[in-house]
Amino acid sequence: MLIDTQEALERVKPKLLACMDPCVDTETTGLSIFGNASRERDKVIGIAIDIESEAYYFPFRHLQGRNLPMECMEFFQSYLSNSHRTYGGWNYGYDMHMMDFDGIDIVPNFEDGMLALHLVNENEPDFKLKSVADRYGIGDGSLQESILEDKVFDTCQQMGLECSRSPRAANNVKSMMYVLDPADVEPYACDDVRLTRGLLNLLKPALRHYGLYDIWKQVNYYSYIVTMMEHRGMLIDPELINKYQEEAKGKSQDALNRLYEVAGFELNPNSSKKVCEFLGVESSAAERLVEVIDAGGEDAEKAKLVQEARGWLSVDSRYYTPYLSLIDKDNVLHCSLNLMGTYTGRLSCSNPNLQAVAKQTDIFKVKDVFVAREGYTMIQADYKQAEMRLVTHYTKDATMRGLIESGADLHSATAEMLDIPRNAAKRINFSVIYGIGYRTLAKNLRVEEKVAKDYLNKYHALYPGFRKLMYECEDFAQQNGYIEMWSGRIRHFNTPECDPHKAMSNLIQGGVAEIVRVAISRLFPAIADLGGHMLLQVHDSVTFEVPDEKLGLALRTIKTIMEDFDFVPKVGVDIEYGKSWGSFEKWDPEESREVGLPCT
C-alpha cells in the first residue's frame, strides 16, 4: 500500500506502532553510502515496511509524483530506532547505513535473513533476495523486479536520462528508480519486505532445528558492530599520500634502471613470461618471488630487484590513487566488511580491501597514511599463532604445546628438532592445516620431491596429531556432510564442490574466525564505555581508536577480553599502538609505567 500523504500516514501509524517486528527495506538512488571524490553519497528515496498483515511504501525523494514531506521522517527516526522492537531485514546493514543519514539510528536489535541463510547453508548459489525467494518458492519477486526495471529504463529514455541495464553501471536501472512515480515503485518495494518476512518465517525453524538459532542471534549483533566499524571508517592523510606519490615516481625509475642492468635488457617486471625466464621459475606471482628470496642464492638477489621495481611501480596505482578517489568529504575511507565473503564465517573486505594492505616497508609506506583522529590513539590487537594454537588444542600435541607456551620461535625450533632448513619448517608450519602434500611442498621450496617427502615425514613423526586430525575431520565430513566448530557454527559439505579434504582447514580457519567474532562482540561495549571506536578487522587482528587519556585502560581491557577463552594452549594477543597505522610500537604489559598516564 502506498502511503504518500500525511493524512494516510496518520491513519496507519497505530498499526505500525502495534507491530513489534516490522520488516524494513530502503529504496535508494544507488549504492554509494558515503560518497567519494567523484560522486555524492546516495540517498533514501523511500522506505518499505511489512507488519505481516500489510506492507506499506513511504516515498520521500521521488522525482515524479507525490512524496511525503521530509518532516514526516521524524516519526521514522523514532519508530525504526526503538530498542524495544526487532527489525527484520535482508542485508540490513546496508539499510541502516542509508537510514542513518536521515537521522534513523543504527541499532543492534535486528534479524537479518541473509545471515540466517548463510548459517543454514553457506553453499547457496547466491544470497540475493529475489533469487533466494525464487529457489524456495516464495512470492514472485523476480517478476516484480523485471516489471520495475522496464519502467525505469523506458522512463529514463523518455526523459533523456542516461540509464543502463548493467548492474555494474553507475546509472543502472536500480539506481535510477527515483525517476518513477512512487505508485510505480510500491509493488516492488512492498514485495521486498513481504519476501523478507516469508524467508525469515522459513529460516527460523530451520535454525532452531539445526541448533543454530543462538549463533544467528550472535552473528546479528556482530553484523551490527561491523556496520558501526564501516560507518566510522579510517581517517586518511591526503597530504602525506601526495608526498609519497611524488617519491614513488622517482624511485620507480631508479629501480627499473638497476633491474635493466642486471637483466641486460629492459625487462618489464610486470611481464610474467619475461620474469619467469629471468628467474627460471614457473610462476612470477608475488608469493613465488618471496619463496625464491627465502631460498637464498643468486636468484634471490634477482627476485629482490623484480620485487622492488614492481613495488615502486604499483604502490600508487594499488593504494594511493584509489584511496584518494574513495575517501569521503571528511577524508575518511569506508571499506565494506563482508560477512558473506567466505564459507567459514571469516570476514572479507572490499571497496577497498583493507585486509590486503601491504606490510609496512620503505616502498610500501601505505599504513602511514591511516592516521588517528585528533585526541585519539590507534590500537591494533593481533592474535598470535592463532591457527597453530587452535590446531594444537584439538590435537593435544604435547611437543607443539610446549613450544608455544615457552614462547619459542616455532619455525626455528621445528627446523632444529627436525634438522631441516628453517624456510622448510616455516612453510610446513603455515601449511599443515591445509593438508599440504610433498609435491606441493617440493615446488614451493624448489627441492626434489623425495627431499620434500622426507621433510614431511619427519614433521608428522614429531607432531603426529596433525595428520591424525586431518584424517578424522575428512572422514567425519564425508560421513556426516558437515563439521562443527567449537562455537557450534557449522561448515557444510553438502555439494560436489565441497572438498572434505579441506575439513580440517575449515575447522581451524573457521574456529579462529569464531574466536575473533566472539572477542569483538565482547570488546565493543567495553571500548564504547571508554569513548573509543572499533575501526577494522583484518583476519585475526582488530584495530581500535581510543581517547588519548584512556589509552592505558584500553590496552589492559583489550588484552583481558581477547585472551579470555578456555583453550589449551591459551590464546595470546600482541598489542601495538600509535598515531598512525604505520608507526605502531609494541605494548609491553609488564612495563612499570602505565601507557597514557602520568608517571608516578
Note down, in words, how this protein is organized.
By secondary structure, this protein is an alpha+beta fold. It is built from 21 helices and 17 strands. It has helices at residues 6-18, 73-79, 92-100, 113-120, 129-135, 141-159, 182-209, 213-232, 238-263, 272-279, 286-295, 298-326, 386-395, 398-406, 410-418, 422-431, 438-445, 449-462, 464-480, 503-529, 551-562, and strands at residues 23-28, 44-50, 55-59, 87-89, 110-112, 234-236, 332-333, 336-338, 348-350, 370-371, 376-383, 482-484, 490-492, 533-538, 541-547, 573-578, 585-586. A five-stranded antiparallel β-sheet has the order 14-15-11-16-17. Helix 3 (92-100) runs parallel beside helix 8 (213-232), helix 13 packs across helix 19 and helix 20 packs antiparallel against helix 21. The longest helix is centred in the middle third of the chain and has 29 residues, at 298-326.
Write the layout of secondary structure elements.
Layout: H1 6-18, E1 23-28, E2 44-50, E3 55-59, H2 73-79, E4 87-89, H3 92-100, E5 110-112, H4 113-120, H5 129-135, H6 141-159, H7 182-209, H8 213-232, E6 234-236, H9 238-263, H10 272-279, H11 286-295, H12 298-326, E7 332-333, E8 336-338, E9 348-350, E10 370-371, E11 376-383, H13 386-395, H14 398-406, H15 410-418, H16 422-431, H17 438-445, H18 449-462, H19 464-480, E12 482-484, E13 490-492, H20 503-529, E14 533-538, E15 541-547, H21 551-562, E16 573-578, E17 585-586
Parallel strand pairs: 4-5
Antiparallel strand pairs: 1-2, 2-3, 6-7, 6-10, 8-9, 11-15, 11-16, 12-13, 14-15, 16-17
